[in-house]
Design brief:
By secondary structure, chain A is an all-alpha fold. Chain A has 20 helices and 3 strands. Chain A is extended. Chain B contains 32 helices and 45 strands. In chain B, the strands form 14 sheets. Chain B has a 7-stranded mixed β-sheet with strand order 7-6-18-17-16-8-9, with helices on both faces. Chain B is globular, with a radius of gyration of 29 Å. The chains are: A mainly alpha (about 475), B alpha/beta (about 1050).
């Protein structure tokens, strides 16, 4: 009886385990790749369109063409469009002018795992995918990873141990009977409240508690997804998305400094001298810039002696501006009730946004809420990554051009940094500086190495970031 | 006593048992360790522990539940074009404090000056700096500064507006009969013009100039000899023989940065060219310059006149110096012969403040043909202009009731002169006293109008340190407080400034330069290009003018008037230290904590007493019969005034001589300087109206106590100290225990055993060849030992470091003069905390770079070698292996990295470091955490020094501020390396050694430190590493250090001491 159970159990395990693992691996790899490369534009559920189209069913859509074409499309769509591929041209006419970023670093297996993940997601995260000709990986995907298997296993094991316990107990009774010793069989309750079981539960509790504590402690201070309300409802989606203003036009430190630099109000004024009314918020937000620098949009001039003006004087200037704009927009001679209220609300909003306990005057810098916070013991330099590493801003900051309210995209954890340093290839070829890595150059030339990663030149060492 | 042995001090030489016991202990004696009450003022018991534990858990739980604090990002309103947040900008300026001068570059981040670098365009300093110049940036953020103008009313000084001040002052000046402006040396030609304008408006004005440490006798002597009241241009780079009578020209005399650079250029012997200058120092106490000398002639302070007269007799002829001690006579006779042999290639100088002695010096130099060769008047130095006789005259004028207004302009006569008490008393009789200082001091404490000036980093200005060598001072930050530049105040009062201008003093300077300086050159055709260029470079050289007259003076009369030796048993020498000056720098905690190079004491002045060898293995104090030990308190009586001072035993003192530093014991120097040490300025005597920096009416009592916090760092973090084992054999004290239990007595050269350690290799120039051969054979033996390993080093280096960068350093011990500029630069660059006297006494000083002092040779008159000791970045680092959390590990560029955020404070690494360079944050010195109990006060200040937001403005934003409980150490300025690499990458070129320079390297006035990439075959470092004189410290223990030192070569003539 026992033998029978064990044999059966072992057989089930043997059959299931490799299948489960390999399928998991591929999908997990795909998930990671998707998150790092695709998630900025493609929706995670694979069913709805975001910047890029929904990826669900992509294989069917490309089924008429060789698999290679799909790979190339993912790696460099613009090149394919250029070469006049019929499917590519069709897609381009549908989605232009949105350009899909090129991903030359993705290998064929990489793309396969992304596709596996896409299918996994489409199937609601558990259904068996139907992939054709995907080689060894494809078989694994077919097997799927049903979660109920684990639960069934767990239930089965629990049952097994109960049965075994009963059997042992019965044997003990028999043995006691044989020896002529009186033996009282333990009830289930007695077994469950026995020292052994309680001890085990305590032990498990400590392990589980410790694990949770450590995990939570590690994520203490992390702010992924942090999207605080800002003093000005500045929309990156409008500026970077719709108007396609280059990130570095405003964040001009990114290419030359450790700081990306939050632009000074005079950078805003470069455009907002002319654009005085916003598309979404009208005068509500842009007036805040004017109030902080002392610009009078009515006369189109900076106000002399603005620093020393009282709040009432300032109020007169900007409430007039808001009111006038309202009147013009609604072709009114006098402010109506709504208009008066609007002026009042907007002005109050300006005051509350631009002043706080420390800063009493409206004039002066706009105090933004800082989103990306690194601990003091971390040194990070934007220019190293932007100018030397030639990374896109979106790599770390996500699809900012779609963000109405700026949010922290990346976890900014050390693990996240390290992962990127492990994978990213150094721009080795065209920078004379890297000539000092003579050995790597030789190895690259000889084909021993196919790329030099940041890790290879010491990018994982403590004192590259901590000093 | 072996002539070649090296020792660190008396305790080492005597094999002091108590000391040796501490050497192998990492953190000092039990006494020091037990004294931990600063952490929690009452002893903690088990209950407290549980309480804290409970609190900790509770706090952590609450903290975990709290939101992360909201941080603000505040951009500029209008961003200046020249500023990119995160990128440093450098402005050329000039550090000037009285006659103290150094052309500098000021590093600013986000508009805050945070670091001083030398200006290498200056022909005088060539990029060198001093500790004082390095520390001057902290003065900007001094919490002790005046923050607004003040006027004295019924209730003492109260805040006033500038308009009030101007109204009051102008009214007072208009009715004043006699106005006196008291100042130290003024280097600025424009300030002098301002004073002239002021005198034109108020003709009843006289300017009284004096110097805190006077060189008036040289000025007077030159006036009498050549008719030119200046200090000549000394060219130490052209001198083969230098004889200095007590002039500390490398440390504090006239222009030490310039002199050090020139002096060292003649002292770099190599095997191929074994030549160096000869330097003979004639003095009573061991000065920093004396410690660098080849030969020292020991005289009592009062014998200086006789010694000069004696040398004069030997060189010029005639008798003189008959009363000099016999040994000195012999030495000086030999010195005279050497000088004669080096005609026109020698310099004889003296710090004597007796003009007649200086005339004899002039005559000696004239006879030797030095004028026009090693000394000249063409670019004569203007760095000392003061005359204390003017001050004495002022006091008597005031006492006669003739002066009704005194304007104090950056001087402190109530403290730093011999007649300070008289000056203070006299000021009470002056109706109007106006202070133009930037911080309170002993003098302006009683003044009734305070019109504070800017710090020099907030000011416009100029300086002419030598005739024709102009430099510009430009502001690097807007004034932090409601202050106004002193010159502008004077101009306002004399109605000569343009009140409508935004920067009236800038206009004034430009105008003055246009009229006075532009015409002195022909390189620039337009004034604007001349000015722009001067502003960019910070310096400009124009025609000097002035050549000095012909030699014409009554030498015989001078000879008769030299000072006569005293007859007392004990004499005292007063000297200016490298860090404190005569108290001008007492408010600066970086300088207070910088060890005196020779005595290695901090936070106070210690009475240096001689150690005398009595033939046994024991030194005894040379005075009072008692066996004076370091830190004993004695009663010192000078001219009837009694002081209680701690004692430090000092080698190389003349018998019967004690010495005490000036510049301590200030009573109004803010939180940092008040009450540190004792003030001995009032014990100075005067002769011919000039201050004499010695006193012959001295007695020293026996021990009256023990200093509470003995803050000398000489016996902290020692390496290579020798002891004797039971059999009387010499062993290393710091490995004594290990050796005796595990290995028995070792053989010389045997790895890991009890051997003579290779820390310092001194040699005489004459024996250079032999000693280099000896060094080579030693290093060969070390190499053999070190190569006996399973992990061949060369292979390791080849796989790990053959590409990319491989950092290394070279320290030329022949160039190092021990001035400590590097130590202060390191403190400034790396946010190294100041810990205060008490913590220093507990071995808790935090400096990453220390300068070890070793003596060698003759115990009665030893030579000195200074060894800058910082983390050696060992490739086989013992610290790395013992860290349980891998917080310290090795980089692919050969750096020994320290990750503070990973350190848990076991201190195993510090324990295992053979060089003792790791520092532990015992307390929260820079207030990085939230528990105020952990934040020590440096000198009883209200807000702990490191916690004050004003002081913290000086912190380098690129370097982590360390919190309590972590180890820190020299990082080879990794932030500079990373920045240098980034610059090279951005410019798309290979890294050059000039891209990466450590803070200590750029600060060094003599270029003793060279940092670079060992893989750069054409780099500076590769060249330096090739010398045969090089070695690694402790090479035999196979740690594979990345720092190389050179053998110390002295050009000592042993026969001089016979």
């Amino acid at each position: 009886m026992i033998n029978y159970f064990f044999r059966k159990f072992a057989i089930i395990l043997l059959i299931l385990s490799p299948l489960l693992l390999s399928a998991d691996e591929v999908v997990d790899a795909g998930k990671a790749l998707f998150k790092n490369n695709c998630a900025q534009c493609h929706a995670k559920n694979m069913k709805s369109n975001a910047t890029g189209p929904a990826l669900g069913g992509v294989e069917e859509r490309w089924a008429d063409y060789p698999r290679e074409d799909l790979y190339n499309w993912v790696r460099n769509s613009q090149a394919m469009i250029g070469s006049g591929h019929p499917k590519a041209t069709e897609l381009w006419s549908q989605y232009k002018p949105t350009v899909m970023q090129a991903f030359p670093k993705l290998t064929d297996p990489d793309i396969e795992s992304i596709l596996a993940y896409v299918n996994y997601q489409v199937a609601g995260g558990g259904a068996v995918a139907t992939s054709a000709g995907a080689g060894a990986g494809g078989e694994a995907v077919k097997a799927g990873t049903p979660k109920w298997v684990y639960w069934a296993l767990f239930a089965f094991l629990a049952l097994l141990s109960t049965v075994l316990a009963r059997i042992i107990s019965s044997f003990n009774v028999i043995a006691a009977k044989k020896a002529g010793v009186p033996y009282v069989q333990k009830t289930l309750l007695q077994t469950l409240t026995s020292k052994g079981v309680i001890g085990f539960l305590l032990f498990a509790g400590v392990i589980l508690g410790g694990y949770t504590t450590v995990n939570n402690a590690i994520s203490l201070g992390r702010q992924q997804g942090y999207a605080p309300e800002q003093p000005i409802a500045f929309s990156h989606a409008t500026h970077a998305g719709v108007h396609k203003i280059d990130c570095q036009y405003c964040h001009d430190g990114a290419r030359r400094s450790k700081h990306g630099v939050i632009p000074a109000a005079n950078t805003c004024m470069n455009c907002h001298k002319a654009i005085t009314v916003g598309s979404k918020h009208g005068t509500a937000e842009i007036t805040k810039i004017y109030a902080s620098v002392g610009f009078d949009p009515i006369s189109n001039k900076y106000i002399e002696g603005y620093e020393d003006m009282s709040q009432d004087e300032i109020k007169d200037i900007y409430t007039k501006w808001i009111g006038d704009t309202y009147k013009t927009e609604n072709s009114l001679e006098e402010l109506d009730k709504t208009g008066t209220k609007l002026v009042e609300t907007q002005w109050n909003n300006i005051v509350s946004s631009l002043t706080n306990e420390q800063k009493k005057s409206i004039y002066g810098p706009i105090e933004w809420t800082r989103i990306h916070n690194l601990p003091d013991h971390v040194y990070f330099n934007h220019s190293q990554h932007v100018t030397i590493g030639k990374l896109e801003c979106q790599n770390c900051h996500g699809a900012v051009e779609e963000m109405e309210t700026m949010a922290q995209h990346a976890p900014l954890s050390m693990g996240w940094c390290i992962n990127c340093h492990r994978e990213t290839e150094v721009q080795f070829g065209d920078n004379e500086y890297y000539k000092s890595y003579a050995k790597y150059h030789e190895e690259l030339a000889a084909g021993i190495k196919d790329k030099v990663t940041v890790e290879d030149i010491g990018g994982l060492e403590c004192q590259k970031c901590h000093y | 006593m072996n002539k070649n042995s090296v020792w660190i001090g008396e305790k080492d030489l005597n094999r002091d048992e108590a000391f040796l016991e501490t050497v192998d202990k990492e953190f000092g004696t039990a006494e020091v360790l037990e004294n931990t009450e600063a952490v929690a003022e009452q002893p903690a018991n088990r209950r407290d522990f549980l309480k804290f534990l409970g609190f900790g858990l509770g706090a952590a739980t609450i903290a975990a539940g709290c939101d992360i604090p909201v941080k603000r990002a505040i951009p500029y309103v209008i961003k200046p074009d020249s500023i990119v947040p995160g990128v440093a900008t450098y402005y050329a300026s000039t550090y000037v404090d009285g006659g103290d001068y150094c052309p500098i570059l000021v590093k600013c981040r986000e508009g805050r000056p945070i670091k001083i670098e030398g200006n290498d365009l200056s022909p005088l300093t060539q990029g060198g700096t001093s500790g004082r110049a390095q520390a001057s940036v902290l003065g900007l953020y001094d919490t002790n500064r005046f923050r607004a103008p003040q006027i004295k009313g019924a209730n003492g000084l109260s805040k006033a507006t500038w308009a009030d001040i101007d109204k009051t002052v102008i009214a007072k000046l208009a009715t004043s009969k006699n106005i006196r402006i008291v100042t130290n040396t003024i280097l600025s030609p424009t300030t002098k013009e301002v004073l002239k304008d002021f005198q034109a408006k108020y003709p009843q004005t006289k300017v009284v100039t004096y110097d805190p440490v006077s060189s008036a006798a040289i000025l007077e002597a030159n006036e009498m000899t050549f008719g030119d009241r200046v200090i000549p241009d000394y060219k130490f780079d052209k001198a083969d023989v230098i004889v200095s009578f007590g002039a500390d020209f490398l440390g504090s005399w006239i222009s030490p940065v310039e002199f050090a650079r020139d002096y060292i250029s003649k002292r770099k012997p190599t095997l191929e060219n074994p030549k160096m200058s000869r330097h003979i120092q004639v003095e009573g106490h061991m000065s920093m310059t004396g410690s660098n000398a080849d030969n020292r002639v020991l005289i009592k302070p009062s014998e200086q006149g006789e010694s000069i007269a004696f040398l004069h007799g030997k060189i010029v002829g005639g008798s003189g110096g008959g009363k000099l001690n016999a040994k000195a006579k012999l030495s000086l006779t030999k010195a005279a012969a050497e000088l004669k042999a080096a005609r026109g290639k020698s310099i004889v100088i003296s710090a004597s403040n007796n003009p007649y002695e200086q005339i004899l010096i002039n005559d000696i130099n004239n006879t030797l043909g030095n004028y026009g060769n090693t000394m000249s008047f063409a670019h004569a130095s203007l760095q000392r202009q003061g005359d204390e006789k003017e001050l004495a005259a002022l006091i008597s004028e005031v006492e006669g009731g003739r002066v009704d207004t005194v304007i104090l302009m950056g001087a402190n006569p109530a403290y730093d002169t011999a007649n300070g008490a008289a000056f203070t008393a006299a000021m009470a009789k002056v109706a109007t006293t106006i202070s133009l200082d930037y911080q309170p001091n002993e003098t302006n404490a009683s003044f009734n109008i305070v019109a504070p000036t800017h710090h020099f980093l907030e000011s416009w200005g100029d300086a002419e340190a030598k005739r024709g060598q102009l430099s510009v001072i430009q502001p690097t930050i807007s004034p932090l407080f409601d202050t106004r530049q002193a010159e502008l105040s004077l101009l306002t009062w004399s109605n000569s400034s343009n009140a409508k201008s935004e920067q009236p003093y800038l206009d004034y300077i430009k105008n003055s330069w246009k009229n006075n300086q532009f015409g002195r050159q022909s390189k620039f055709a337009s004034f604007s290009s001349f000015w722009e260029n001067a502003l960019h470079d910070g310096i400009v050289t124009v025609n000097g003018g002035g050549t000095g007259g012909s030699f014409n003076v009554d030498v015989a009369l001078a000879k008769a008037k030299v000072s006569k030796p005293g007859s007392g048993e004990v004499e005292i020498a007063f000297y200016e230290t490298v860090n404190m000056g005569n108290g001008q720098f007492a408010t600066n905690p970086w300088l207070q904590e910088m060890p005196d190079p020779v005595a290695r004491t901090t936070w106070g002045n210690y009475l240096a007493v001689p150690v005398k060898f009595n033939g046994l293995k024991k030194f005894i104090g040379g005075l009072g019969g008692d066996d004076l030990k370091d830190g004993d308190l004695v009663k010192l009586t000078v001219s009837g005034t009694e002081f209680t001072v701690p004692v430090i035993q000092q080698f190389g003192m003349a018998p019967g001589t004690v010495a005490l530093a000036l510049g301590y014991g200030r009573t109004a120097a803010g939180a940092c300087g008040t009450g540190v040490g004792v003030n001995v300025n009032n014990s100075l005597t005067t002769d011919n109206g000039l201050n004499q920096y010695y006193n012959t009416d001295v007695s020293v009592s026996g021990i009256v106590g023990k200093e509470e916090h003995f803050s000398c760092v000489q016996y902290h973090n020692t390496i290579g100290v020798k002891a004797a084992n039971a059999d009387g054999e010499v062993i290393n004290a710091d490995e004594a225990t290990l050796g005796q239990t595990a290995y028995g007595v070792g053989i010389t050269g045997y790895q890991g055993s009890l051997t003579e350690r290779s820390v310092i290799f001194p040699t005489n120039l004459k024996e250079l060849k032999n000693n280099v051969a000896h060094l080579k054979s030693k290093r060969k033996a070390f190499a053999k030992l070190n190569d006996a390993t399973l992990y061949p080093y060369e292979e390791y280096v080849d796989t790990k470091y053959s590409q990319g960068h491989y950092w290394g350093m070279h320290v030329d011990l022949n160039s190092c003069i021990g001035c400590n500029a590097c130590t202060v630069a390191c403190v400034a660059e790396n946010n190294v905390p100041v810990v205060g006297k008490k913590e220093v006494s507990r071995h808790h000083e935090m400096t990453w770079l220390r300068i070890d002092r070793y003596f060698f040779g003759d115990a009665e008159n030893p030579n000195t070698v200074y060894q800058p000791m910082m983390c050696q970045h060992c490739d086989n680092a013992p610290c790395e292996n013992v860290c349980p959390v891998n917080a310290t590990n090795h980089s692919s560029e050969g750096l020994n990295q320290m990750a503070y955020n990973r350190c848990v404070g076991t201190r195993y690494c510090a324990n295992n470091c053979p060089y003792k360079v790791r520092r532990f944050n015992w307390l929260d010195y820079t207030t990085a955490d939230i528990f105020p109990a952990n934040q020590p006060k440096v000198n009883g200040e209200e807000i702990p020094f490191g916690a004050d937001n004003l002081t913290r403005m000086v912190l380098n934003p690129d370097v982590t501020v360390r919190s309590r409980g972590v180890i820190e150490k020299c990082s080879f300025c990794v932030q500079r390396l990373q920045e240098g690499k980034l610059t090279a990458k951005k410019e798309g070129r290979r890294l050059e050694d000039t891209d990466v320079r450590t803070a200590c390297q750029t600060a060094c006035p003599t270029g003793a430190i060279t940092f670079g990439d060992r893989n750069n075959k054409n780099g500076d470092l590769t060249k330096k590493w090739k010398s045969d004189l090089n070695y690694h410290a402790l090479e035999e223990i196979n740690v594979r250090s990345s720092v190389m030192y050179t053998m110390k070569v002295v050009n000592r003539d042993e026969s001089m001491d016979a």
